[in-house]
Amino acid sequence: MPVTQSRTESREDHSEAMLDSALEALMQAGVHLRSGGRLADVGCGTGEVALAMAECEFTVTAYDASPSMVEATNERCAGLPVSARIQDPRTLVLPEGGYEVVHSSWMLHRLGQAHDTVRTMARATSPGGLVVLQWTNGGAMYDHPPHQVCGVLEDEGLEILLARDDVRIENAYGPAGAITGPAHAPGDDGDRPAHAPGDDGARFAGASADAPGTRNVRVVARRPLRSSKLARPAPRSSVRAFPLSVGTLRVVSSERLSPLMRRVVFQVVDAGPLPIEEPAETITLIWPAPGATRAVLPELKRWRFPEGTGRQHTVNLTVRRYDRASGLVTTDFFMHGDDGPASLWACGAAPGDEVGFGGTRVHWVTDPTAEWTLLIGDETAVPSMAAILEGLPAGHRAIAVAEVRDAGEHVALDAPHSEVHWIHRGERPPGEGRALEEVVRGLDLPSGRGQVWAGGESLVIQSLRRHLLRERGLRRDEVCALGYWSIPRTRRATVSPPET
């Protein structure tokens, strides 16, 4: 669901916008496709990013120069794999190769000299690891030109995946499926990253990341995987702006694919070709706010809406098939049975009906080195599993484990040349029980490098991820496990939590 914020100019709103931007940068870097790992958050403030990343299965070490910020982070993240520590960013010490992700938003501009700090963050990335940085140039901030920061990263052996200096910080709401964190409590200083002891705090009094003359920078860099005797092509990077296409989709046809799945084919009306590079990319559908007749579309390359836009309903949907020549987009709606707006709309969708969209976002990156593929999911993930299976090369070993209500749902996963293990849930509510994990535990997985993708209820996915990484011993870059939905809080107390 989208996160809606008021459009006032209060300190809390500005803090929230900067938090949203930090989480957006991590999402754009593809952190949502990683199965946890170790993450360093440098200049952690009061711990909102650390909390969000810990809830995405990362083990987080948070650093800040301010003891009060470190105390607030440890308090906010109590019970989660987060450790906050006091460190002066000017003399930052991080373990070399110690992290899969090193993140810092809105801290570098408080340092008069940032090259040593950037160099330390670069050296802290493990092979395949990411550095995600944001800072502000201009105004009352210290300037650090992007090309200089990128030069330091490249000197340390990293490749630049993204470098832009036009990031806007403003109040807006993000697309469904984005990494989200809790709102700031009144009085938090989330918009004021702790400066290094001895910095002139007065220099930054009243400084704002959206003040006239300022430019906000976002840089994403990656440390290449170590070369081996086997020359293996690297997976394509998932780093790209979102959305790269916005416009209107018009219903061409709608049919009942199975008792719980409805197929809707759209025509792209007023936008160019969708930027689809991988199977199972997701598109965000946008319905008008109550009382409005048309959806308001976001800006290209930035999920930002015009001032005063009311709360619109959005939903992420897998692109089942896409015909670039005709502009036809095939999607499958799982009918949750919860009278949700998307399900109700899909039930009544008729040729000529229209809906806004922004797209697309990568949820699967093909690994050309994988010798076999394992796909795991419930009905919400079946369209993605089907799209991925269709994109695999002929002769590739593919195994799918799918939990559905009954045999009537098999048609949604048409995979004649794949090994499919069906689990029939029956009348058991979705997301309850451990049937998916039990079947996966019983699989005799092939040898060699694999690629595993899983999607479903978040608690189920957490437990599956732990099994695959800890017990099966698969590498983190072989596993992508995504929480597609969560059991309502009213039911969570009755569901056994995954083992830790």
Would you write up a description of this structure?
This protein is an alpha/beta fold and 500 residues long. The protein has 3 domains: 11-222, Rossmann fold (3-Layer(aba) Sandwich), CATH 3.40.50.150; 245-361, Beta Barrel (Elongation Factor Tu (Ef-tu), domain 3), CATH 2.40.30; 372-492, 3-Layer(aba) Sandwich (Rossmann fold). The protein contains 10 helices and 18 strands. The chain has a 7-stranded mixed β-sheet, with helices on both faces.
For the biggest β-sheet, the strand order reads 3-2-1-4-5-7-6
Q: What would you call the structural class?
A: alpha/beta
- For the record, what is the CATH homologous superfamily label of the largest domain? Vaccinia Virus protein VP39
Tally of contiguous helical segments: 10
CATH class of the largest domain: Alpha Beta
What is the overall shape?
A: globular
Please write the string of helix (H) and strand (E) elements.
HEHEHEEHEHEEEEEEEHEEHEEHEHEH
* Approximate helicity band: 10-25%
Low-confidence blocks of residues: 1-14, 171-207, 496-500
Give the name of the CATH architecture of the largest domain.
3-Layer(aba) Sandwich
% residues in beta strands: 25-35%
Gap between N and C termini: 28 Å
How many domain modules?
3
The third-level CATH topology of the largest domain is Rossmann fold
Protein name: FAD-binding FR-type domain-containing protein
Pfam family, one: FAD_binding_9
Region (Disordered): 178-216
Biased composition (Basic and acidic residues): 186-202
